[in-house]
Structures are given as structure tokens and as C-alpha cells.
Amino acid sequence: MPTRIFGEPVKRAEDPRLLTGHGRYVDDIDLPGQLHAAFLRSPLAHARIRAIDVRAAQEMAGVVAVWTYQDIGPCQRRMPLLIPHPDLTHPATRYALAKDEVNHVGEPVAMVIAESRYVAEDALEAIVVEWEELPPVVDIERAIEPGSPLVHEELGTNVAAHYVGVVGDPEAAFARAAHVFRERLVIERSAGMPLETRAVLATWDPVHELLEVWDTTQAPIVIRNALAALFGLAPTQVRVVAPDVGGGFGCKIMVYPEEVLVPYAAMVLGRPVKWTEDRLEHFVGTNHERLQIHEAEIAVDAEGRIVAIRDRFLHDAGAYTPYGIIVPIITACQLPGPYKVPNYHVEFRAVYSNTVPVSPYRGAGRPHAAFVMERLLDRVADELALDRAEVRRRNFIQPHEFPYDVGLIFQDGAPTRYDSGNYPGMLELLLQQMDYERLVREELPRLRAEGRFVGVGIACYVEGTGIGPYEGATVRVEPTGQVYVATGMPQQGQAHKTVLAQIVAEELQIPLDAVQVFEGDTAHFQFGSGTYASRSAVVCGSAVALAARKVREQGLALAAEELEVAVEDLVVEDGRVFVRGAPERGFTWAQLAQLANPLRYAYAGDLVVRPRPWTGPTLPPGRQPALEATEYYSPPHATWASGAVGALVEVDVATGMVTFRKLWVVHDCGKMINPLVVEGQVHGGIAQGIGGALYEKLHYDENGQLLNASFMDFLMPTAMEIPRMEVAHQETPSPLNPLGVKGVGEAGAIPLPALVAAAVEDALRPFGVRITRMPLDPDTIWRMTHPEETA
Amino acid sequence: MPTRIFGEPVKRAEDPRLLTGHGRYVDDIDLPGQLHAAFLRSPLAHARIRAIDVRAAQEMAGVVAVWTYQDIGPCQRRMPLLIPHPDLTHPATRYALAKDEVNHVGEPVAMVIAESRYVAEDALEAIVVEWEELPPVVDIERAIEPGSPLVHEELGTNVAAHYVGVVGDPEAAFARAAHVFRERLVIERSAGMPLETRAVLATWDPVHELLEVWDTTQAPIVIRNALAALFGLAPTQVRVVAPDVGGGFGCKIMVYPEEVLVPYAAMVLGRPVKWTEDRLEHFVGTNHERLQIHEAEIAVDAEGRIVAIRDRFLHDAGAYTPYGIIVPIITACQLPGPYKVPNYHVEFRAVYSNTVPVSPYRGAGRPHAAFVMERLLDRVADELALDRAEVRRRNFIQPHEFPYDVGLIFQDGAPTRYDSGNYPGMLELLLQQMDYERLVREELPRLRAEGRFVGVGIACYVEGTGIGPYEGATVRVEPTGQVYVATGMPQQGQAHKTVLAQIVAEELQIPLDAVQVFEGDTAHFQFGSGTYASRSAVVCGSAVALAARKVREQGLALAAEELEVAVEDLVVEDGRVFVRGAPERGFTWAQLAQLANPLRYAYAGDLVVRPRPWTGPTLPPGRQPALEATEYYSPPHATWASGAVGALVEVDVATGMVTFRKLWVVHDCGKMINPLVVEGQVHGGIAQGIGGALYEKLHYDENGQLLNASFMDFLMPTAMEIPRMEVAHQETPSPLNPLGVKGVGEAGAIPLPALVAAAVEDALRPFGVRITRMPLDPDTIWRMTHPEETA
């Protein structure tokens, strides 16, 4: 019987090394003769540069170079616009070092390369910049008013993009609806805060004539291709490696100034150059996300069925749009969630401000979408005096309605088309887990009777995952019996080495530890984009599966030929291919790999050498000398994961603190490759979602100064703030890919703001408040619950 | 019109770098923290090791390690037998460091690794070995006599292999022949003497977890696979690079002790370790070739037509047979040359001796074969008073007789089957070049009348080239427009970067300098064997052609799809694919490479971005995101190059010196990729052949001491000794491969001993001598021409 490996909760192959301190992050790598870079960053949100005097810095002992825009050769080009969009009519990208203007606090202005980081940092202080201050644009609502100062004078507007999406006939639907409710809903600015900040180490290797770059990037191939094009090198002369990376969360996918400047410095100076972002730099030098202001309306019939939704929102783009308008596009497309919205008008403006640029952060526009949708449904329930679960039941897309078209074009350019799911089943599973009826009818009244402010919330969501364009993988059985797997994906903790190995081990029926997964290194695989959009398992995993299946076929065909039997008479079991019922007639995979190659391997122990009758080429035309396949998988459109969460929270109205008494999760990512890894992703996402719901807010003042750019001031949940959660799984396999999988990387982060809003609002019913803004800090709650004292 | 690039005498792409001193050979590479290795080598030809005391050496300042057999872990395994053969009934390979016995002067006994080579060499002298001398076996004729001491006691014989090949019925043919002539013919021991000796540099790269080895090898993939198997590493954890290599000539294809010990030391010691062979080490530590003693008989009819040949020869194997019996097999199969030999008996014994092991050296058994065959034909001509050219004419295989089977199994295990040729035409072309009739009838008598000892010789030969099993290549058009070509071949001067680029440039109609050829680096290509047997252009060139044609097809198909025209309406010219007659409707190759990939390239200048209507996967199933192909070519059997050479020599009987007055060459290697490179190969081969004919002889004394192990004592021709030669080409395309090419790497070296013997014999007709031994040194000639003084 074949051994089941796919779907088993095997332990992460990554952990023994990482947990015993043997991880190797970029900053752990030191190369002989290495120099260190530091960046002078703008202290002003908006200013013109009149002059920069670097002479004093240059003369400091240990300083090797001090560069401004004038000095950076090919890096003088504007940074690339990675994802254009027709509605992004006014894009803007920065210069690697500011040319004549800065547009946010933290923008790189000069670069010092020195013998040590200490010297480099000291030298930064010796650089004198003559500034001409310009009026900062911070408030995005004011930014679109006539007469507002402009972030980019030359664009003539602060509106980078204006998008309108229409499904059905929203105008008519609103006109005839039984009820219309309107909300103004805000999600504040936040950002990914990986424990490992960004880092780049680069060296020009004269032995291999190779620019070698270690980078914390989520997309080494993108960086490799960019560097090759920028420096006019052959792509094979650039190797980008993302080694162990300590968290990414989206903010590490970009082409950042440091990612071109550090390699350039290594090439020009002929010595390795390293730069590791410090935490302050991360707050002001790495992209943010989240701030959107929605004006949303929902129209329902008398029974609470959605007739139409209209949403107009402002999206804070920050100072530049290097990643296009992916985030608000996702918000727009995913806002309807698991519900039927027959008429839908969505419209946004992406607005420039003199703040850090915005690009996706785990969730990537989806927390906003779920927050808006779920808040609207809660409002409907409350207004029509319906149970909140019941309102959802009445609006779900039904299991027989897949594939289901939302009617808009998704972030990947393909239709927003849900592939499969069972939303009613998912909710019922959640309610059952929660013992919802008893909870709401008995537990809540009992606790409230004790004077406690407790509340129950539920929230449902969908997540477009596994988008294209494609990923690829090479699978090869080595003559040693080891199986080599290479992909273009890096990881920042997602356990690719485990789950991709499971896919291969299942196909070849070999032990997991026979599979070696190489990832995040352009020397191993060089086509693909990277890890983002909850796509690795779906797109890369599928490519791995296709390649492994092809290798399996190659092995079966070769064994059949050697054994002179039909492929149908063979089985693959116990790491071998053999004749059904005659296990002694067969080969190990190592033996098959050796047989595939007419060349003997010196020293190969269990060598199978069969002198072939050479009546023709030893390698017949079309045959390769290896069991090896490179396959690509390109999805027709996204796969749609979904989930439902429930919580019982308690609010301490004296302090404004929110405590989870219970947290339930139902998640559906199709077939699970490894339930342990899926749960880890869900746990992590939920934790991050709790951060977004209760803690994480980047606070800019009106001058564009980030007031809480440290972990003393910017709060994130610790393990203490994360409750134990009960996770249940539903599996609705995706019909789109060979594994039936959907993505799970961002899942948990999406519904938590909506959930916390619902539960806290429920807890605070005595105060009659509506929660319309995230995160929900104690101060806000205190004000809500003490209106008389804050009036 | 397509531009012709294939077949053009373009200049070598390699030369600007090499000629301006920018070559990078292994010894040019120094790595931080590098250690240096030196080897203690046996001073005795045959001895048992009683004890080795390394204590004094270990205690020397700067010495890091002193290893003997006991210390070398996995390297304790016997060195591999690379090419087994059924008739090699008594194989023997060495230990990387002698275990308990040494079998030739120069065999590695201990290894010192130290901070510098100076320290390491000094430490060698402090190692004390207690030897028990054993009787050395040097004379291979005595070695097969009963009671001879044995090289390998445990084998019970000095005969490693006994081979008998029979075609037709030689016994009967000899019995009925009109004439039978017999010769004893000897070719002395010699060896390849590349200007760059062998060298190995190895490092364990902890950043990439990679064993990286730079090695002067002709077969980096073989070394890579051997090291991976020996050390239990995944093959991808070992990278072997043959950078610039200064000559190979066959002796650099092997797995030598230093090639496993230096990498092992780098892994164990955690520091880079380098070893560069000195010249003395090269003489006694790198394999030799050539010594064979033939007892040959030819049977002819009354008109000088060959009826049968019988040849029994002894082949000196040296102390071990790591490369099997390839050399004498080649001699046996190629002896009939371009002539019809209907009945043929060939038999050899490969005999062990306490000398350096024998493996192929440019020519690889063929100079011996041509020497025997041509000497026999000259004898026939002289005995039957026929012109030497006329005897050959009467015996040639005719152009209509291809494919022609010799009747024996060749070195590659396939039939010795000549694919194509025109031997009569080749000889007539040579004679025409020489103005043979005038030369022989007028010039010679005139010169001789002046009292000068002048003679004319001709010699013809065939060369089995381009053997399997296979080679492969990857060709990829980069989005930058550069074309990447990777193969498993290294080079030692054969201009692969030029000729492989020509093949690709021709197919894609792009400038030569747009093609970048990566070779000799397992990081770029990892299946294949290496450069030997005049096979690179044939086997690797064909793989490159197949891959380039596939890429061309991919480009045409993509352009046809984009332009909505049929492939047949497109042309490939000027680096573009466009509609015939409408050059503006088309794409550069760079544009096509970008179109092939649904992913945009940041910074790519001439980016073609076409928003595709995404109605399905952006990368359709079966489509890859690149114009890229990896193809393998596996020949059914060898291709057969051929040649004819002629010379007018003059002998100074007072000094025994031989001078070329004229040297003519006709060579046929099928289609020429680059006539300039072909001529370079022919010139080099001829020079080496002149060395073999007049200078190169390794002289062992009866104790197994090599008496002339330096360039003071071992003579090689310099530019002064090489005459101007007239080279003409004949092209009989090979029907076996897509390019119609045959190999040319060893060509010139093959016929020269036969040619010189013929011409000198002709010059010395007044003395009635027969030349039966090569090389022909002045001393020998002096003795021949002064019989009275040497009697």
C-alpha cells in the first residue's frame, strides 16, 4: 500500500536547524573585506534639496565612499513601477537616492560606505543638507480638496488613481431597496513588522564573474532580473539568494533603493558591502499599508437580503506607487466576500501623501474589505433585529453556485471568480463549535447579569489566493537516491521545505528526508516571481506536483523497459518501483537514476551497470540522461479560500481593555498538504489580525512625522495577548490545480478587525456605540464608555 | 538574406582575454585563509611500506596536517575504475595515498597541508618512511615471461587484459597470400605535457553549504559526481569548475588522488586548500601513454592488395588501469585505417609495469595504429617495387562503400563503422598539393645528385571521433537579448566559446558577441562527461545546435502567434524575427524573450508589455516562460575523420638531425564550423606529432626510475622545430549528426610518426635501413648512417 505523506501533520523540516540556533540570516553572513553601508534619510516629510555637502563625511577615517544622487551611475534611473494598471494614471516612483526633492520622512538621501557600521553612522551626521521645506500632505481627505498642496507638483494632482467598478445596476437597486444603511469606516495605517528587518549583502565575485547578493527579499528572481537589467549584466551573472528570512508579511517584496545601491557599491568598490536595516529605518524606510476611509452603503430587502452595495473609499498611497494599486484593487474586488451582491458600485481614489509608500501587508486590502462588509451586515442585522448569523445565512453564495463570478477583474487581471467553497457549511461548523445558540441565549445573559461587558461576534470572509502568473519547479532524482527539488520561491517561515517535500515524497513514495528543497536562490531556479498573495502552496506546490508526477512517469517507463513489463504492472512503494506482487523485481529510485544515465558514476556504490547492446545512440533521441522534470503551473485565476471566525470578548470599561474569552476559527483552504503548517499559518494570521484590531497604528502628525517609530510606542501583540483558539478545518478542494489546494498565508489576518468590532460592539450594547474604526485602542473604548467625561 | 556565421573563419572569442594576460587559471585563484598541500611521493618503483613517521613533520611551524592512508576517511576507498571492459580481467586501481605498497616512482604516500607551499615542501622532507624494496617490473616483454616478478602480487599475473579481435579468416588468407611481410614496430613511452600542470583548489563554502572545487580537469562533471558519491553529499552540494586550463591532451581526464584529497582536506580543515603540481610531479604523478611493441604481418596479393593483417602487440599499462584498456582497444580498432582489410587478426596484452599508469594522450593509440599500418604498406610498396602512393590507392575503401564496417567493437562499445569519407580523393588532393610526380621524379633525384639525403613520405589515417555516450546543452534567450549557452564541456584551448557561439548565432542570426558560452562549470550544466576523444564539436556542438534550433522554433512560434501570421511567413534575420517583406512587423530576440514571460522585468529597457486578455492561464499548459531549450545529442557511433600528410625531409647524416623541407596536410573533419580553429587544431596536432616522431621519449631505467623527468632532459619541439605547413581541407559531412561535423582535436598527432618514418627511410635509402621505432632521435639516425662506427 502506498504510504500517505501528503496531508499528514508531519513536523517542519526547517525547525531543528532554526530552533537550535543554526539559522543563517543575511546579517549572519560576513564576507572577508566586507564594508558597511548606512543611509542618510530625510528628516522632513516634504522638501527640496538645495545642496548636500559631504566633504566632512568623506574625510572621516574609515569612510570609503559617500554618495549622493550624482554618484550612483546606473542607479540614477527612477525605481521601477513593478505593477502598472490602466487606472493608475499618475504613477510615481522614487529615485534610489533623492535627486532634488524628498517626499517622506525616511527617504534615502545619501549613502555612506565605511569600514564599520559605526563609522558609517557617524559619517551620516557629518553630512550637511540644505533644505527648502515644502508644505507636507498628510491628511488624505484634505489632499483631494481643491487647492491642497501637492506631493508631486509635476503630476498636478494628489490622486494617483481613480477606479470605478460596477456590477449590475446599483443605482436602480438602491432606489427600490427596502432599507439602505450607510457607514463611514476607517482602517488606520499600519505595517508589517518582521522580527528580522531588511538586509542586503552584496559582493562581486571575480572568480565566477558574478554579482552575488543576499537579500531578505520575498522575490529573489525579481531582484535578480532588475539588477541584471540595471547593470547591463547577463542574468546569469547575478545571483540573488534569500537565505533564512525572519518574516516578510509583504513588505519585503519590492525593489527598494538599498537593494540596488548596496550591490552597486559592491561592484564599484570591489569589496563586499552589507547593510542591515535598523528598527527605526524599518519604520520609515520600509513600506506601510492599511489606511483607507470608506463611505459604504448597503441596500437590503425586507428580509435582510443584500440588494446592492455602494462603496467609495480613499486609499492612502503614501509618497510613491512602486507597487501600483494592488491593495485597493483587492479591497474593491473582495469586499462582497462570501455573499451574493447582485448590484455593486465600488470606487476608490488612491491618494498621495508625504508618508511612507504603501504596498501589500499580510491581508493586503482584505482586512479592510471584510471590515466594511461585515460591519454593514452587522448593521443590517441590528437594524432589522435579526440574528447576525441569520443575516449571513440569508446572503451566502450557495455550494451549487460555483464557479461564482463577482463581476470585477481581480488583482491578477483575471476575473474575480470563486472556484469552490461551502460558505453555509463553514458558518454552521463555526456556530456548532461555538455552541452559538447556547452562548447567545444562555451564556451571554448570564455573564451580563453579573455586570460584565461581554459580547459575541462572528465574521466571514473569502480570500483570493494562489494567483498567477506562474511558478515553476525542477524535480530530479539524483544517482545517490536523493531527490533534488528547486523552486523560485523563498520563504520567511512558511515551511516550504516541508510541504514541497511532502508533495514529492507522496508521488515517489520516498522518505521525506530523501527530498532536499532548494528555494530562494536564483542559482537553483530562475523563472517565477516570489512569495506573496498566499500563492506558494497553490502555484509553486502545483508546479512541484506536476514535475514530481512527470519524474514518476519517467521512472515507471524506464523500469518497465528494463524489466520488460507494462507500466500498468508496476507499483511505486517503499521508495522503489517494482512489479506488482513481485517486489524483488524492481529498482530503487537511485538505481533508476543511474540506469537513466548511460554514464557510469565513479564511486556510486549501488551502481546498476548493464552493458547495453549498442545498436544506436545510448541515449535515444528525446530521452534525457536523468529522471528530471521542470514544470510550470499557471493558474487560470485565483483560488478562493474562505473562513469564519467567532469570538466571545470581555471589555473592561474601566481601562478600555479587551480580553478574548474564546476564539473560534473555521478555515477552508481546500486540500491541506500539512494540517500542522496550516494551523500555524492560521494562528499567526489571527495573531496579526488581533494586532490590527487592537494595537497596530502608525501615527503621523500633521507635519508628516511618524510619532511612534519604535517598539516602545508602536504596539504589537505578544504571546500574552493571543488567546488559545479552536481551529476547525473544512476542505473544499480547488478544481483549478492538480493538488486541490488554496492559499492560507494571510487568512487569519483578514477577519479579525471585523470580528473584534462585532464582538466589542456587542459587549458595549449598553452604551449604544457603533465600532467603525480600527484599531480599537483602550482610549477609544474608554471614551465610548465614558461619554459624559469625554464630552 | 541570412548571414553566414557557421563555417566562417571568425577569430577566437577567447583570445583577447587570454592574450592580454586576463586568463584565470586555477593557480591564479587565491581564496582567503587558503592552505597549501604538498605530496610525499614514492622514490621507489616497487616497495612495501613498513612504517611512516610523520611526527617531526607535524610539529613544524605552519604545518596544519600531515596525513597518510590512515587519516583520509572516505578517501581510503580504492580510486575508481572509470571504464571497465570485459577483457580487462585483472584491473587494478590505486589508493589515494599508498596503503601498504607503492607501484611506481611518484605514487602519493603522504600529504602535508600547511600555511604555505614552502612549509609544506619542507615538511615532506621530515617524513620518514621505512621501505621494504620489491623487485621492479619495467620491461614489459620480460614482464610476461614465466617467473617474472609481479607488479600486483595479488593478481597472480602482470597481464591486465588479453584481447583478441578477428575479422574474416586471417589464417586462411595468410596461407594463400602471394606475399607476407612481417615487422616488429615500437612506439616509445611519452606523455602529455600541458604548459599548465594539474592543479586543484577546493573550499567548503558554509554560506551556500557547497563544496566548491576548481580543477584543471577535462571532465568536471565526472569529478563532481565522484566527489558527491565519495563524500555522501547531494550532487548539487558540489560544484566543480574547470576555469581557464592551459592544455589537457588527455592526461587531465581522470580521477587523480589529488582531486579527491584536496577537496577532502578543505572540508575537514574548514579552509580553502590549494595544490598545484610542479613539473617534476607532472612527470611522475600524471598519467603517461604510448609504449607499445607490435609484431605485425601483412599478407598481400601479387598486386599489393591487402589480403590480411595480423598484429600481436604488448601495451604498457603502467602500474594501474584506472581508465581501463581504452588506448590499446583504439589501436586495435583503428589499425586498418582507410584501407580494406578483409581478414584481420589483432591481439594485445596490456601489461603491468612499475611505471606511471597509462591513459589516453592526444592520439590515444592511433599514432601507434597508423605507424604500424603505414609502415606495413611502405614495406609492401618497397618489396613489390610499387610507388608508395599507388599501394595506398589500390587498398582504399571507396567513397561508395560507406558506411563501412571494420568488424570490431570500438572504444565506445559501438561498431567500428566509418560513416563517410573520400580517401582516394583525399590522397589525390595531397599528391596534387605536393606536386608528387614532379617531386619524386625530378626534385628528389636533383637534390640527391647534390649529395643530400632527402626523402619523401606520405601517410594516411582515419580517426574515430565524436563518440558517445552523449552531451547536452542549454540555450536561452535572455530578456536582455543576450543568449546564454551552457554545456558540460570544459576546454583547454579548443575555442568552444567561439565555435559553439557560431552554431547558435547562425541559428538565431544574431551577432557572435550576443552569445555567452558557459562551460566547464557544473553549476551551469551537470550532465555529460567531458572533453576527450575529439568529441566536443561533434557531440556537444550537435547538442547546442539542437537546442538552438528548438529555441529558434519557439521564437518563430511565439512571433507567429503575436503577429497573427503563419510561421512560414516569418524570416529570421538581423537578430530579429519578422514578416517576410515587412521587416517592421517583427520582434528582436530580446522582445520575444520578454513576450514569452508573463512576468514583467523591472528596468528592462525595451520592454514589450501587452496586457493579455486573461481568459485562462497566462502561461498556457506546456508553455515555459522563456525561450529556452535543453537538448542532448547521443551519437549512434563515432564519426570518422581522416587525413593524409606528406613531407619532404632532409637528414643531416653527420649529426643525425632531421629537417622538414616541406610538410603538406589534407584533413577531412566533415563540415568545418570554423576553418581557423580547425587549422589551429591541425597545426597543434602536427606539432605534437612531430614531437612524438622525433623528440618525446620518457626513459625509464631498469629500476623504474624516470631518467629524464624535466624539460632539460625530455625534449619537446618548440616553434623553431615546427615547419610551415600547407593545409588543405576536404569536407565529407557526417550523416550522423545535425551539423555534419567530425572531430579534429587529435588529428595531426596521428600520422606524423608514420610520415617521418617513411620520409627518413626514403632519405636513407642509400643505407638500406628500415625505420621501425619511434621517436627517431639523432643518435639512432647517426648509428644507422654509421654502421661501421657503431658495430
UniProtKB/TrEMBL annotation, chains A, B:
It comes from the Bacteria. Gene3D superfamilies: Aldehyde oxidase/xanthine dehydrogenase, a/b hammerhead (3.90.1170.50), Aldehyde oxidase/xanthine dehydrogenase, molybdopterin binding domain (3.30.365.10). Keywords: Molybdenum, Oxidoreductase. GO terms for molecular function: iron ion binding; oxidoreductase activity. Residues 20-135 form the Aldehyde oxidase/xanthine dehydrogenase a/b hammerhead domain. This is Oxidoreductase, large chain. It comes from Thermomicrobium roseum (strain ATCC 27502 / DSM 5159 / P-2).
